[in-house]
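Researcher: Quick sanity check before group meeting.
Model: Go ahead. Protein one:
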Amino acid sequence: MANRSYLYSLTSQPSSFDDVPERITGLTEANYSVPFVASLLVSTHPSITASLFAPVLTHDDGTEMTKLPALCAAMAPGVERLERFLAALRAATPGNDQLHREADSALMFLAEHRRRYVQLETIELAMMSVENQADLDALIAEHRAEAVAVGEAVDALPDDTEEAGRLLADALVSGEGVFSVFRGLPLDDQRGPDNQPLGLSYWSTNLYWSLRGTAERQADQ
């Protein structure tokens, strides 16, 4: 089984594992990485909140970590940032019809499944490397910092779409400073130099871990 990151839309932000939102909808997942687009969607003042995957994480040696974190942020501003980025990306890649179709499909899917919050779950990635609570806390802090940096880079793009496209095209090759997060970003969802795919091509409500909100659970019963 691949260790994945997962992205969900939620009706509320969970304060604990038992604080299950009324509705939870799967959005996307990725093997061994947190895609650029997932980071961008959770980039607006992301909070480190409770994972909805499990109450504790226990290693083979019996070591237990009880504060299992995830990242949660307001969904609407994340989608607005994505729209801004995709407009610049279209301008930066004239003639890449496949990429442009994927951008259109992504925005349509997110519009259909938009809720108040979006949550990024990375516990499976943590299981690959963390050995204690401090490592786990450091990893989620790293994912939060990456999301914030991605959001700041998109906000720094010029308002003029054509100008933003030219800047982004250059940044994909040699971005520096705030735009360094764009450097080497692959546009075909393969992994780039830092192992981060774009994450634009795969969207589904049927993820490997299909979390259920309280309303869905009641409907199942």
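Researcher: Fine. The other one?
Model: Protein two, sequence then structure:
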Amino acid sequence: MKWILGYRGLGIVIHGGAVIEDDVNVGAGVVIGGRSGLQQVPLIKRGALLGAGCKVLGPVVVGRYAQIGANAVVLKDVPDGGVAVGVPARVIRVDPAPDEL
């Protein structure tokens, strides 16, 4: 496993059941966790970038090389190469993954 944790993990909360693949960059203050009433937890795929303070909650898949903006609240899946921002987060762009170029 190779992750990059902002400020050495300062303020980062990761649910024990969450799956995080390799080469993921997690900003400071990020929460990767569950939601009330739902058993499933997030899957963060290879190369994703999670901006500072974002929340990824519930049965969500963050695709390969997706980018989540700072302070976004992700409640729905983000496709491979997707860029999601806002509260709740919405996908504003989908870029090709580096291995698809």
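Researcher: One line on it for the slide.
Model: The first strand starts at residue 3 and ends at 5.
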